[in-house]
C-alpha cells in the first residue's frame, strides 16, 4: 500500500497571461482515494489540475506536499511522488510502446545510467497492469485510441508515483474504453492505494467511480465531498446551468444525472426540474 | 508472468540497441574512409606512404604542401562543420518536434552567415572576432524568432513563418554586402551563399574545433533529456525535467557550434536539415539520435565535397551538391507531411 | 421593422468603403510626392532649376538636366513595376485565398531566375523581350509547382504549407542557378546585372517592352475582379453563386504571373511589394476586391518608388538596390501576419 501523503492547496490563484482562471481555491486531496474534478467547460478544471501538478505557477497562495511547499522540492524528487498524464500527450514518431513507457523512468535515472533492473521491473509491471505487455515492441502509431491511452497511463505508472494526476483520460474514447480505463484506474487505486486526481467530462461516470468530488464553477470550488452528498440537481443547475433530476444509478447506487431539456419531457417533470 | 514480460522488453531493447551500434559503427567507418579519401585524392594522387609521412611532419616536396596546407584543412573543416551542422540541426528538430524546424529553414545559420560576411568582407577582422560575431548573431536570431513567434500558445508554424521572414531580410543584407564589399569576389560570394570548403586554412580552424569538442559532448550527454523534451512541455515537466533550463543549455550549445561552423565554411545548404531525419531513419527510435546525426552530417559534407570536386569536369562547392540533394528531399518531406495532414 | 429593412437595403447597395475617397486622395498626393522625390533625390541631389530645365527645356544640356531626364525613365519604370507587383500580389492572394501569396515567397522569382540563367547559358539569349518570355515561363511553372505542393492534403493551401513549399523550391532552384553559373563566367557577368533586383538600369525601351504585358495583365485582372469576391467565400459557395471557379482561377493566376513575371524579367527579383501593398490596402479599405486590386496598384507603385528613393539616398554615393530595401520593409510584414494568423491556419 502506498503511504499516506498530505497534499494541500491554500488560496491558490492561477491562470494564463495575468488572467486568473482559478480564484482562491483551498483544498486538501484525500490520500489513497479516487478524486474527480468536475465542472463546465472553461471553469478552470484543467488549470487547477496543472497548478497542483506544478505545471503552472500559482500567482498567489501556496501548495504543500507533506508540509513542504512544492516549489521548494527539486523537480526530479517531486516527480518521484507525483505524476501527471496531460490531456493530449505528444507521441514521438516511430517510438515503441516499451521505450515510451520506459521514458516514465526518467526521474529515477541519473545522467549517465542506462536501464537498471528496477527500470525493467517497473516498466514490465506498469505494462502488465495496463494489459499491454504483448504490445511491448509495437510502434505507437499502430495502436488504437484506447490502447494508446493505456500506454500513456502505463508511462505514468512506470514513474511509480504515489499520486497520479490525469487530465481527461477518457476524452475521445468510445464508451467501452472509457469504462475500461476507469476500471483499470480503480484497480490501481484499490490494489496499491495510489491517490488518483482526475478531470472527467462525464458527470455520471464521475459520480460512479469517484470517492471524492471537487466541483468547480467559474474558477471557484463550490462543493466537495462524496458523490452521493455532492451531486444534487441544485449543484448541477449551479455549475452547468442545466435543469435535471438526480436518480439512483441502478448498477452502482451512485447518483445519476438525468437532464431535462425543452422537449420530450413528460408531464410533471418540468416542475421537478425547476424545483 | 512478470519475468516473461521483462524478457519481452529486454529482447526488444537489445534488438534496437544492436541496430544502433551496428549503424553507428558503420557510419564511423564510412567517415574514416571519406577522411582518407579527402587526404589521398586531389589534382595529383600521391602514394599512401608519402601522404602518411607528410602528415607526420616529414618534408616531402610537393606532397607536404598539398596534404598539410590544402587537403588536411579542407578535410578537418568539412569533418567538424559536418558534425556541428548534424548535431545542431538535430537538436532543434528534436526539441521542436518537427524536421522542418531546422537551422536552415528558420534562418539561424543565415544570422551567423550575415555577421561573418560583414566582419570578413567589410571590416576585415580576425578569426576570433568573426567567431564571436557569428555566435552573437546566431543567438540574436534565435532570440528574435522566439520573441516574435511567442503567442498565447506554442506554434511551430509561427516559428517557421517568422524564421523565414527574418531570413529574407538577412539574405538581402548578405547579397548587398557581397555586392558592395567584395566587388563580386566570386569564391567568397559562393562561400557565403551556399557554403564551401574551398580555401579552408589551418589557422581558421581552431575556434570551430574547440567549440565542437566542448559543446557537442554536452548535447550528447543531454540526449536523454532531449528525448524527454520530445514528449512535450507538460509530460516533460511532470517527469521532473527542468524544461526551461534544459532548453536554454541545448539551444546555446547548438547555436555555438552552428555559428562557428557557419563562420568557417559558410552555411552548407541543408546538412543541418538532412542529418537528423537520415540518422533517425537509420538507427530507429529509442536510443539517442545525437551521435548518429553528427556522423551523418560529417559523412554528408565530406561525400558531397568529394562529389563536387571530382565527379564533374567543373569543381562545384560542397553547398551546391548538398543543395541539389537536400532540396528535393525537403520537397518530398513536405508532400508526405501534407498528405498525412501534419502541417 | 422599417429600420431593419432600411439596413438591409443599405447592405444590398454597392458598398463604398468608408475611407475610400480619403485614401484615394492620399494615394494621389503621395504618388505626386514620390515622383518629385524620385526625380530630385539620388546620389546627386538636383536643384529646382535643374529639374525644370531637365523636364521642360529639351535644349538645355547641363549635367543636372541630363540626370533628371535619366531619372524620368527610372521613375516611370518603377511606378509601372510597383503597380504590376501590387496588382499581382492582390490577385495571387485572392486566387490562393492565402494572405501571404507573394512572388518572392512562392519562389516564382527564383523560377524566373533559373530560366533566364538557363537561357543565357544554353540558348544565347540577350534581348529584353527574350528575357521576358523565359522569365514568364519560369515564373508560371514554378507558381504551379509550388501551389500544387502547398495545397496537398487537409485544409488546402495554408500559409505555412505555401511558405515552406516556396522556400524549398527556391532553395532547390537557386542551387541549380549557381551550378549553371559556376563554369560560365560570362553568364555570371550578364546575370549579375539582372539578379540584383533594381530599377536603376531602366530606359525607355525596357518601358515600351513592359507596357503590353502590363496592359494584358490588367485587363485579365479586371475581368476576374467581381468573381474573386465570390471566391473569397470558398469554392463551394462560389460555385453555388454560379462562378466557374476553374476558369476564374486560371484567368486571375495568369494575370498575376504575367505581371510579376514581366517585372522580374526586366527589373530582377523584387520581393514583398505585392504582399505589403495588398495588406496595407486591405487593412484600411476591407476585403472588397473591386477596391483592393486597383488601390494595391497605387500602393505598390508608391512603395516601390519610395523604396528606390530610400535606396539611392541611403546607399549614396553608390546605391542600395531596391530589392534589398523592399526585403527589409516587407519581411516584418510577413512576421506580423504570422503573429496575427490563427494557429490552425498556420
Automatic annotation (TrEMBL), chain A:
Q: Name one GO molecular function term.
A: ATP hydrolysis activity
Q: Name one GO cellular component term.
A: plasma membrane
**Origin organism of this chain?**
Aquibacillus koreensis
The UniProt entry's GO biological process terms, in alphabetical order, are: iron ion transport
Taxonomic superkingdom: Bacteria
Q: Which protein is depicted?
A: ABC transporter ATP-binding protein
Q: How does it sit in the membrane?
A: Peripheral membrane protein
State where it is primarily located: membrane
Q: Where in the cell is it found?
A: Cell membrane
Start and end residues of each ABC transporter domain = 1-243
User: Which PANTHER family does the entry link to?
Assistant: IRON(3+)-HYDROXAMATE IMPORT ATP-BINDING PROTEIN FHUC
Q: Which UniProt keywords apply?
A: ATP-binding, Cell membrane, Ion transport, Iron, Iron transport, Membrane, Nucleotide-binding, Transport
Record-linked PROSITE patterns: ABC_TRANSPORTER_1, ABC_TRANSPORTER_2
One Pfam family from the record: ABC_tran
From TrEMBL, chain B:
Q: Entry's Pfam families?
A: FecCD
- GO cellular component annotations, sorted alphabetically? plasma membrane
Q: Which InterPro entries match?
A: ABC_BtuC-like, ABC_transptr_permease_BtuC
The primary location reported for this protein is membrane
Query: Its membrane topology, per UniProt?
Result: Multi-pass membrane protein
Q: Which domain of life does the UniProt lineage start with?
A: Bacteria
Transmembrane domains' residue ranges: 20-46, 75-92, 104-123, 129-148, 160-182, 208-227, 248-276, 282-302, 314-335
Q: Which UniProt keywords apply?
A: Cell membrane, Membrane, Transmembrane, Transmembrane helix, Transport
What molecular functions are annotated in GO for this chain?
A: transmembrane transporter activity
Q: Where is the protein found, in the record's own terms?
A: Cell membrane
- One BP annotation, GO: siderophore-iron import into cell
Q: Which family does it belong to?
A: Belongs to the binding-protein-dependent transport system permease family. FecCD subfamily.
* Name of this chain's protein: Iron chelate uptake ABC transporter family permease subunit
UniProtKB/TrEMBL annotation, chain C:
Q: Which Gene3D superfamilies match?
A: ABC transporter involved in vitamin B12 uptake, BtuC
Q: Name one GO molecular function term.
A: transmembrane transporter activity
Q: Which residues cross the membrane?
A: 20-41, 72-92, 104-125, 131-150, 162-182, 202-229, 265-285, 292-314, 320-338
Lineage, top-rank taxon, reads Bacteria
Q: What's the protein's topology in the membrane?
A: Multi-pass membrane protein
Q: Which Pfam families match?
A: FecCD
Q: Name one GO biological process term.
A: siderophore-iron import into cell
Q: Which CDD domains match?
A: TM_ABC_iron-siderophores_like
Would you tell me the Gene Ontology cellular component terms?
plasma membrane
Mostly located where?
Answer: membrane
Q: Per UniProt, which keywords does this protein have? A: Cell membrane, Membrane, Transmembrane, Transmembrane helix, Transport
Q: Where can this protein be found?
A: Cell membrane
Q: Record's family?
A: Belongs to the binding-protein-dependent transport system permease family. FecCD subfamily.
This protein is called Iron ABC transporter permease
Q: Which lineage?
A: Bacteria, Bacillati, Bacillota, Bacilli, Bacillales
